[in-house]
């Protein structure tokens, strides 16, 4: 057991913050001594359930790229640290999706599975998100499905998964217990992956495009780091902001790339960029996304409203004497940036060393 | 004469770069000795016409916020360093506008007037741009004209200028010869301020809004600094990118704020942000701007095309072994950011100490 597996300075800083922000918890002294002793003996330490919940919420509050932080206190934290078998992880990920979906009234949830321990790295989910669509090069050129799901689809097929031929095939969940081990794969049950069919309030033909998207964006490839302890398997979700689907997933040239088709159906003049046909098609695609989620009763924020909320969050934090580090280029929405109040200001600087945090996961 | 008025290190660095990038000019040795001696004797030095032209173009190439840098070599540099009387400056600013307008085929131009010298700060133009519109609070609440032009309009009125009551009244040019001196004001001649009336290709009613904008954006409140020498009066212009007018000047809540009116005329449902009425009105406003400049034969770039050009510029500079520092939040257009290729990448970091540069002008 290398005694420095979990950094005692990180542990100390986190516990101090925990006791400072939650005065009911008393002074940090006794707990600090206990934790440092535990690190001394075992190389790491175990969070109390309260520390875990606080740490996860703080990691959200600290997420400089996230516009949705106003509700950081409401994050539902599922303590699943006792689980590290692939079957159990998959089962609980599907349960996560059901809880988060909540019949359409989306709840922000994080499920925290076993952490990395000395000599025993935690198992990992290989998917970028718990629900995402497969993609593969189409026989005639171009793509079927989501190019962002191509790598995982190929890997799942190698493992024996049979991929359908439709453009919106939900990928199986791939869980790998150890570096180099063969990943297990699990079909996402229908009742865990709510999807919304896309229609447009003014254009009947839009439904014929046969588009849809899933209700819950649950990121599953980031490591949650709290007080020096790393949880590489801690999928979390909020609700969607419409532009993530309408301006990126369905519009980006290296994703579903639908602007030309939508523009064609709208009868726009695509002979020159100056007609702004791309911009017009983009707006109508986003109108369809917001309209369809509304009709389906699934929580979704538009970028104007979510921008207002974020400024409210900053003001609230400021009253509490806290900065809100934010990354302008991630906060400003990809549609009509200049129309949103978040465009017209600067933010507290981002500190990559800030913890607790959700971090890009390192390779095994 | 304080001998350190012009920093000899800045002078040296600039002259080295000049001689390095223009090998035809020979080694920097003799010129360096001459300049350092001149600084020693007079506190500053005089650029050769070639150094001035090179330095101004370099300042454009270095402008981290500018998406239009592909054509930096083509900048027309007018050497007017012998002029420092208000009348002469005004006359030559109007001549600048005529040259830049060029019957609609806009040319990038900079006019360099007298620099700051030891004990003799240069005169200054008080306007933000050579052509801009006046604004004043309207009697019934709200604004007439451009709120961004309110301060200068008030100042010009104090000096005796008579402001009309229309929403697009061109401000007079204010030139101040010395700190504390009474500024002189000059009506911009009609033939120096080409304007474009705005119409929409599909909506006849758009013309009834009676909107227009001027053809040449000529920034007049930045200091051009080259090799330690400061030129506080060096107005420069490019051509417009449509979004500057359609998404900022006419759309911003603290500028002409026209989105609600355009949305009303378009018959959009403004009862909720979710209908994206703002985004739709924004696109149509921008369509009108691009269409109208095209019809009037006035050069204007759309944000898609200008984004492509900027990536071409970066590639070209890279082949020459040079970085292209860029400020993401200024480069990405305020409309459909995510649709432009400039959105999907990072840039070489910005160094505020980089020179030559156009800088925010310090107060007297
Ligand atoms: C409640 C509604 C939420 C909304 C509307 C929201 C919105 C967003 C958006 C629009 C992004 C940028 C995504 C992109 O451009 O790829 C983002 C990023 C992020 N959000 Fe949120 N979010 C929400 C909840 C959450 C929650 C619950 C967490 C964690 C507990 C979280 C943590 C993050 C993180 C870590 C990122 C950066 C992801 C990365 O680096 O790829 N967010 N969020
Ligand atoms: C030729 C066509 C040009 C185009 C399309 C163009 C485009 C732009 C745009 C869109 C901005 C951002 C403006 C804003 O958001 O307020 C900008 C900023 C800037 N441009 Fe250009 N530009 C052009 C020519 C020039 C020239 C000729 C110069 C100097 C010689 C120049 C120097 C700058 C500088 C210094 C800024 C930053 C201004 C500030 O800090 O407020 N540009 N440009």
Topology:
The structure is a homodimer of 364-residue chains.
Chain A: H1 8-21, H2 29-42, H3 49-61, E1 76-80, H4 86-101, E2 109-113, E3 124-125, E4 135-137, E5 143-145, H5 150-158, E6 173-176, E7 184-186, E8 195-197, E9 212-214, E10 218-219, E11 222-226, E12 229-231, E13 236-237, E14 240-241, H6 242-249, H7 259-266, H8 277-296, E15 300-301, H9 303-319, H10 328-331, E16 357-360
Helix pairs in contact in A: 1-2, 6-8, 7-8
String of helices and strands of chain A: HHHEHEEEEHEEEEEEEEEHHHEHHE
State the distance separating the first and last CA atoms of chain A: 19 Å
How much of the residues of chain A is beta strand, in percent? 5-15%
Question: Fraction of residues of chain A in helices?
Answer: 25-40%
**Unreliable segments of chain A (pLDDT under 50, ≥5 consecutive)?**
none
Main-sheet strand order of chain A equals 1-2-13-10
Number of strands of chain A: 16
Mean of the pLDDT scores of chain A?
A: 96
Structural class of chain A: alpha+beta
Rounded to the nearest angstrom, the radius of gyration of chain A is 22 Å
Biggest sheet of chain A, in brief?
Answer: 4 strands, mixed
Structure ligands: protoporphyrin IX containing FE
Globular, elongated, flat, extended or rod-shaped: what is the shape of chain A?
globular
